[in-house]
Write a structure and sequence with these properties.
The chain folds into 3 domains: about 190 residues, Rossmann fold (3-Layer(aba) Sandwich), CATH 3.40.50.150; about 80 residues, DNA polymerase, domain 1; about 45 residues. It is of the alpha/beta class and about 350 residues long. Helices cover about 45% and strands about 10% of the residues. The structure holds S-adenosylmethionine. The site of S-adenosylmethionine has 21 residues, from α2 and β2.
Length: about 350
């Protein structure tokens, strides 16, 4: 059986931004259909390893079908990337040469009507990446008070007509399917003018809320700094301004050295830069890519490289120990305790920082 396809976005730009090297260790935090993962493995063989994470077990299955030829070089993990450190500790997968996030929803998920991501075909109002999540889009649509619904649609969808849409939703409840909801939105705000369907922004808002997408992204980005080795690269592809703003702010803050107020005569903060921006400007797809894959049109790629201060190099062993201690509260350990793992890291000391 051949796996359905998802065309990876900004593929060459991603490989270049990750500065993929043979024998490297990489994390694809959103492996999806496995397109980026396959290219990373192609460019980093022989001897490379890739940890492929996805919250969606169905997406992981597709990636498994697509990538059998990489055998033991690739490990598939069904988890949320908000648990990145814990996953890497569990599989002893750090430090790494590169981490990729290709955010949002894949074409495979969009085209599966049963997942409820698309307003173009009928399906249940679900929108969860993982079946383990409790709250679905239907729960939000059918239970949130009108004002809260309007706020959510405004905030996560940047929808100016959020009050009108929320009012109509509340009037028409209960709403069960994607086409029912899309019809209600269309009646609330009028027929589509231009290319964008009137339900686009509300569907985006619901998906972000259902999956806590912005919180998970912020949590995951913070953890990348502890996992990247010398010159390790962080690459993030985002698809809307809310995500891109988080990525941009994170990279800029981590690229700053002293963060004392300008009037402070000498530095008292002790803050040092952990990242260097690889590109000053955001990378966007070429017109050719957009015309062959319209889904890529809103993609924004940002990349940064890990920097280590002299002090950090000296502290690498205690830092890993601290990392393991943090993880101890998160991971259900089997026989080997995380303490042992941490001691092993401590013994290896800065050899762990390649
Ligand atoms: C745009 S697709 C990735 C496509 C992939 N790069 C490829 O080439 O096929 C995004 C994937 O990220 C997954 N995802 C979204 N949020 C996630 C999260 N918080 N944790 C783990 N996976 C997540 C989705 O389930 C989806 O499969």
């Amino acid at each position: 059986m051949s796996a359905p396809s998802h065309i990876p976005v900004l593929l060459q730009e991603t490989i270049q931004a990750l500065a993929v090297v043979p024998g490297g260790r990489y994390i694809d935090a959103t492996i999806g259909g496995g397109g980026h993962a396959a290219a990373i493995l192609e460019h980093s063989s022989p001897g490379s390893q890739l940890l492929g994470i996805d919250a969606d077990p169905a997406a992981l299955e597709v990636a498994r079908l697509r990538l059998p030829r990489y055998g033991d070089s690739i490990r598939f993990i069904n988890d949320n990337f908000a648990n990145l450190e814990a996953v890497c500790l569990k599989y002893d997968f750090f430090p790494v040469h590169g981490i990729l996030f290709d955010l949002g929803v894949s074409s495979l998920q969009l085209s599966d009507r049963g997942r409820g991501f698309s307003f173009q075909q009928d399906g249940p109002l679900d929108m969860r990446f993982s079946p383990d999540q409790e709250i679905t889009a239907a729960d939000i649509v059918n239970t949130f008070p009108e004002a809260e619904l309007a706020r959510l649609i405004r905030r996560y969808g940047d929808e100016g007509r959020s009050h009108r849409i929320a009012h109509q939703i509340v009037q028409q409840r209960p709403i069960k399917t994607t086409l029912e909801l899309a019809g209600i939105i269309e009646r609330a705000v009028g027929r589509p003018r231009g290319r964008i369907h009137p339900a686009t922004k509300t569907f985006q808002a619901l998906r972000i809320a259902v999956n806590h997408e912005l919180d998970n992204l912020e949590a995951a980005l913070r953890q990348t700094v502890n996992l990247l080795g010398f010159d390790g690269r962080l690459v993030v592809i985002s698809y809307h301004s809310l995500e891109d703003r988080i990525v941009k702010r994170f990279m800029q803050e981590e690229a700053r050295g002293c963060i004392c107020p300008p009037e402070t005569p000498t530095c008292v903060c002790g803050h040092s830069a952990h990242l260097r921006l690889v590109n000053r400007r955001v990378i966007i797809p070429s017109p050719e890519e957009v015309s062959s894959n319209p889904r890529s049109r809103s993609a924004r790629l940002r990349a940064a490289e890990r920097l280590f201060s002299q002090q950090e190099i000296g502290e690498s062993a205690p830092k890993l120990f601290f990392l393991a201690r943090m993880a101890a509260s998160q991971i259900e350990q089997e026989s080997d305790s995380v303490e042992e793992e941490a001691k092993k890291c401590e013994k290896q000391g800065s050899a762990r920082v390649f």
